[in-house]
């Protein structure tokens, strides 16, 4: 039998035949047009059956509700007054954008994929300030975005519905195979559906029948605009997971109504951007804390109740999980994004029986920031042209010192190009700091990456010398043409008697019963991961941060879930607090804003997270040899896994 027999089967969505059961669901990589087209082509070439694209900018997302005069010269600026899509001027402007969006559809079609254009309006959950008022069914703010929205009037609702229809017409002209209406993730149609956001007393609020009226009218308007035979699907929320919100029974009822109104499919995706809804719940881009397939039970209930295809998305990056979901009748198609960011050819590899060679998504959510797409395990994501593997014109002997993520990526890329690579590390295993992190952190599946990268360096013939110290004699013996130092960073704790973070991760038995994690100025994962790990050992933990809050630079879904975990473990979180010294009375502290001294009694151990300093001493030792020498990863500048793998991949491609 061929691998993944259910996933590889074609499926009909209305009159459209999709070549397999995997959809790359709509997402925003935030890339320039040339980079985005290459990004799309790579994933279409990799075997995806159906691709989703955000077509909201074709006259829906920018709908102006405030005063002002639009100017063509300013049309692309975030703070510009947008053209009203129902005016002649607005229709002409948004029509002029069609060719750019047609190029996206062409990129999918060239390699056999089908595509749907998603019509999206964020409502009160708008992610950036475009100097226009946000809108919603009622004047209720989103729990993360905090905008105070304007409650839509009946006339404004009618105008918005017309804008949906016009946007759908442009999607048809741009060559898309179908339309998808976004009614999930806390965005405008979801806000109308949910009693958490919809407190209206008119014909658009109150009962579920009235609350779904906005979405039903959009479906009917779009159906009228594109014709009866054109595919119109709906991306629908799962239950709200908050008291008083949408229930599973509600979602089933809405799905049945959508099917009756001619929807070609329902695509289920739960949660909100940050996971905040009546407390910390499910984010729609869920980190590894969340088990695979959190929306499968909802999709199963909907599938039992409707005759149209049911797609399900949300933390499904494992092909075995996806195949089982289809085999068990829980859904008809699987939506994936992060798995295809991590490996654009994952589908082809899986269908060819090469699933072990798929670059894994580790669920760390580096791809979910408000900047260009990036992936800790696939440095080529969004950089496909830059990261092509080009055979070396003059193969050389390369010495890579340090087998953490930077050194491993560099060694693999250089060897793939034909260089003879020797990789050494003083430790007996490959992985560097990722080895203890794989045991300690539940925020990302670091162990999956270690399995993958160890196999990859072996397959491309990298020569390994582990448990070996690099020195001048070793370099003379190897006779490299280039040296790469990927020797990582050290924790330079300035608190007397403190345990550094790496030692605490590797051996928590050395810690006392009441541990202070001194986060210093680190505004990302390390302080939170350490506090979470130590708290799970049963110890009392106090987390200190010199910043206004710990983890302030962390991706929001991970930050919300990690902070909730810490609070569930009764970790005391003290912002604007610097650790000074551990004394017999406890830990003395300093407020980082006022410099006021303090004391936390009962602390018996301090774990210092930072600062980290580069382990770059070998550069001074080996530099005088006159061999080209390169620093990458934390040895160049202490940062994150994302930056380490990117440094390594980039250098390996140009050596």
Write the layout of secondary structure elements.
Elements: E1 11-13, E2 16-18, E3 22-24, H1 33-45, E4 50-54, H2 88-96, H3 98-109, E5 114-119, E6 135-136, E7 150-151, H4 154-173, E8 178-183, H5 188-193, H6 208-211, H7 213-226, E9 231-236, H8 248-260, E10 266-268, H9 296-305, E11 310-312, H10 319-327, E12 333-336, H11 338-342, H12 346-351, E13 397-401, H13 405-416, E14 420-425, H14 434-440, H15 446-459, E15 463-466, H16 472-478, E16 482-485, E17 489-491, E18 499-500, H17 501-506, E19 514-518, H18 525-535, E20 540-544, H19 556-568, E21 572-574, E22 577-583, E23 586-591, E24 597-601, E25 605-608, E26 612-614, H20 617-622, E27 629-631, H21 641-654
Structure overview:
- This protein has 655 residues and is of the alpha/beta class.
- The strands form 7 sheets. The protein has an 8-stranded parallel β-barrel with strand order 3-4-5-8-9-10-11-12, surrounded by 6 helices. A 5-stranded parallel β-sheet has the order 15-14-13-16-27. A 5-stranded parallel β-sheet has the order 18-25-19-20-21.
- Helix 4 packs parallel to helix 7 (213-226) and helix 8 crosses helix 9.
- The two termini are 43 Å apart.
SS elements, strand count: 27
Segments where pLDDT lies below 50 for 5+ residues?
Answer: none
Q: Give the averaged pLDDT, no decimals.
A: 96
Strand content: 15-25%
Q: Please give the share of residues in helix.
A: 25-40%
């Amino acid at each position: 039998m061929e691998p993944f027999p259910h996933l590889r089967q074609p499926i009909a969505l209305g009159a459209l035949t999709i070549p397999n059961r995997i959809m790359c669901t709509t997402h925003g990589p935030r890339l320039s047009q040339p980079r985005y087209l290459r990004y799309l082509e790579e994933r279409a070439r990799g075997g995806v059956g159906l691709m989703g694209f955000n077509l909201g900018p074709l006259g829906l997302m920018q709908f102006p509700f405030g005063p002002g005069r639009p100017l063509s010269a300013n049309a692309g600026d975030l703070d510009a007054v947008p053209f009203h899509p129902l005016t002649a001027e607005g229709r002409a402007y948004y029509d002029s954008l069609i060719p750019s969006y047609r190029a996206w559809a062409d990129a999918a079609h060239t390699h056999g994929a089908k595509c749907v254009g998603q019509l999206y309006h964020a409502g009160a959950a708008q992610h950036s300030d475009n100097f226009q008022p946000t809108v919603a069914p009622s004047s209720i703010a989103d729990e993360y975005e905090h905008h105070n929205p304007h409650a839509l009037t009946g006339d404004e609702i009618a105008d918005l519905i017309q804008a949906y229809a016009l946007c759908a017409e442009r999607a048809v002209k741009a060559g898309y195979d179908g339309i998808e209406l976004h009614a999930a993730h806390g965005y405008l149609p979801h806000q109308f559906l949910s009693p958490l956001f919809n407190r209206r007393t008119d014909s658009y609020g109150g009962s579920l029948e009235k609350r779904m009226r906005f979405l039903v009218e959009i479906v009917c308007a779009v159906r009228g605009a594109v014709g009866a035979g054109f595919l119109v699907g709906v991306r629908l929320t799962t239950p709200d997971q908050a008291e008083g919100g949408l229930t599973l029974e509600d979602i089933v009822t809405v799905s049945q109504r959508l099917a009756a109104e001619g929807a070609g499919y329902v695509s289920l995706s739960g949660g909100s951007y940050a996971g905040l809804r009546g407390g910390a719940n499910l984010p729609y881009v869920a980190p590894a804390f969340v088990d695979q397939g959190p929306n499968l039970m909802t999709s199963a209930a909907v599938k039992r109740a409707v005759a149209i295809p049911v797609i399900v998305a949300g933390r499904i990056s494992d092909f075995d999980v996806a195949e089982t979901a289809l085999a068990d009748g829980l859904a008809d198609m699987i939506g994936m994004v992060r798995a295809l960011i991590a490996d654009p050819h994952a589908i082809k590899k899986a269908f060819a029986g090469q699933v072990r060679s798929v670059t894994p998504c580790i669920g760390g959510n580096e791809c979910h920031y408000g900047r260009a797409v990036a992936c800790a395990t696939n440095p080529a994501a969004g950089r496909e042209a830059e990261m092509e593997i080009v055979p070396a014109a003059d193969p050389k002997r390369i010495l890579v010192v340090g087998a953490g993520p930077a050194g491993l990526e560099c060694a693999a890329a250089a060897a793939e190009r034909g260089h003879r690579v020797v990789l050494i590390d003083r430790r007996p295993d490959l992985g560097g700091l990722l080895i203890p992190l794989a045991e300690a952190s539940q925020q990302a599946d670091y162990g999956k990456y270690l399995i993958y990268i160890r196999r990859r360096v072996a397959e491309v013939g990298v020569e390994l010398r582990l448990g070996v110290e690099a020195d001048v004699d070793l370099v003379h013996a190897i006779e490299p043409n280039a040296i790469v130092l990927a020797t990582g960073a050290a924790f330079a704790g300035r608190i007397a008697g403190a345990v550094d973070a790496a030692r605490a991760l590797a051996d928590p038995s050395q810690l006392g019963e009441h541990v202070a994690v001194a986060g210093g100025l680190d505004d990302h994962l390390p302080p939170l991961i350490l506090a979470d790990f130590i708290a799970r050992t049963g110890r009392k933990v106090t987390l200190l941060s010199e910043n206004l809050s710990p983890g302030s630079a962390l991706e929001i879904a991970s930050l919300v879930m990690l902070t909730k975990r810490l609070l569930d473990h009764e970790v005391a979180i003290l912002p604007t607090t610097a650790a000074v010294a551990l004394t017999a009375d406890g830990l003395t502290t300093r407020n980082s804003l006022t410099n006021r001294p303090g004391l936390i009694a009962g602390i018996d151990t301090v774990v210092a997270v930072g600062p980290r300093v580069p382990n770059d001493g070998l550069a001074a030792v080996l530099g005088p040899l006159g061999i080209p020498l390169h620093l990458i990863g934390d040895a160049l500048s202490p940062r994150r896994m994302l930056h380490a793998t990117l440094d390594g991949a980039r250098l390996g491609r140009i050596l």
